[in-house]
């Protein structure tokens, strides 16, 4: 599918006066080839529902539509809406744009069917949404995959293996019932204006949820354990009722620190705590 009748993005931005707003974390992508590569990460999107957060002037949105997706897009900056309305007209029935803050919208209710998420978001909004998508007891979730642009340092924390410096709460949350991979590194010069640091795209797909584990319990456990990551477990998790007994019954040395525990070990402790019988 081609978007040749559409004017070039830079022209759209100039015509609608869309100077990038720092407050909204706006760094735009214009390179159609790069955008097509990003839209290909979730796999074949033909006739699939995609939720895009932060379409801005619509570069990534165009690529998703070219890939055959049906897109629902949430954008907070109303200056972008006229440009996005042109895109809605060029792809009739395939794009729905919603004005609002993605942090305050119920995504499942908005899309109404399982959806792939694709987004290039400011750092703080991206991580807040990411942890929200990864939490909760309902599994599999309504999203079928998450394809998200992060600062490279954050992307590395998502995919970090146990024992590495980047390993922490984000890695355990992203890996205990999902697969997470670093799909593409994106040079800062690809953005207008270029951000200070390099970026990378992480792709996450839900996997089977380990049995007998409450997500809330695992979230509390990782919060406690990594909240004091330099401390030994016997200190960092002692306020969690049953946690020290769980370590003992699982044969996990309480003198270890959180970053040395594998994702499976966190799951085993959370399972013991979830059953209330460590
Ligand atoms: N997707 C475009 C691209 O790749 O060129 C724009 C990316 S820009 C980094 C981030 C976009 O997210 C901006 O258009 C900004 O207005 C929007 N945004 C920021 N916070 C948001 C929020 N809480 N909800 C919805 N959109 C948001």
From TrEMBL:
It catalyses: adenosine(1518)/adenosine(1519) in 16S rRNA + 4 S-adenosyl-L-methionine = N(6)-dimethyladenosine(1518)/N(6)-dimethyladenosine(1519) in 16S rRNA + 4 S-adenosyl-L-homocysteine + 4 H(+). Keywords: Cytoplasm, Methyltransferase, RNA-binding, rRNA processing, S-adenosyl-L-methionine, Transferase. One of its GO terms (molecular function) is RNA binding. Its EC number is 2.1.1.182. It is an enzyme of class 2 (transferase). Transmembrane segments: none annotated. Residues 34-208 form the Ribosomal RNA adenine methylase transferase N-terminal domain. GO terms for cellular component: cytosol. This is Ribosomal RNA small subunit methyltransferase A. It comes from Tsuneonella aeria.
């Amino acid at each position: 599918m081609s978007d040749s009748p559409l004017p070039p993005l830079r022209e759209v931005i100039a015509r609608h006066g869309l100077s990038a707003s720092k407050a909204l974390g706006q760094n735009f992508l214009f390179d159609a080839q790069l955008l097509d590569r990003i839209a290909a990460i979730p796999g074949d999107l033909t006739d699939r529902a995609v939720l895009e957060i932060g379409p801005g002037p619509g570069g990534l949105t165009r690529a998703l539509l070219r890939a055959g997706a049906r897109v629902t897009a949430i954008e907070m900056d109303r200056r972008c809406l006229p440009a996005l309305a042109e895109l809605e007209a060029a792809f009739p029935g395939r794009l729905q744009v919603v004005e609002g803050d993605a942090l305050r919208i119920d995504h499942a209710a908005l899309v109404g069917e399982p959806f792939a998420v694709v987004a290039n978001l400011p750092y703080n909004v991206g991580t807040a949404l990411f942890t929200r998508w990864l939490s909760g007891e309902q599994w599999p979730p309504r999203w079928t995959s998450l394809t998200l642009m992060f600062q490279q340092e954050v992307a590395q924390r998502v995919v970090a293996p146990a024992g590495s410096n980047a390993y922490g709460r984000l890695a355990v949350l992203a890996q205990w019932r999902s697969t997470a991979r670093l799909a593409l590194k994106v040079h800062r010069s690809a953005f207008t204006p270029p951000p200070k640091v390099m970026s990378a795209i992480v792709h996450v797909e839900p996997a089977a949820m380990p049995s007998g584990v409450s997500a809330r319990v695992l979230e509390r456990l990782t919060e406690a354990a990594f909240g004091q990551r330099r401390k030994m477990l016997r200190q960092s998790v002692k306020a969690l009722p049953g946690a020290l007994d769980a370590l003992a019954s699982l044969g996990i040395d309480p003198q270890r620190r959180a970053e040395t525990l594998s994702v499976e070990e966190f799951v085993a402790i959370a399972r013991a705590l979830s059953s209330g019988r460590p």
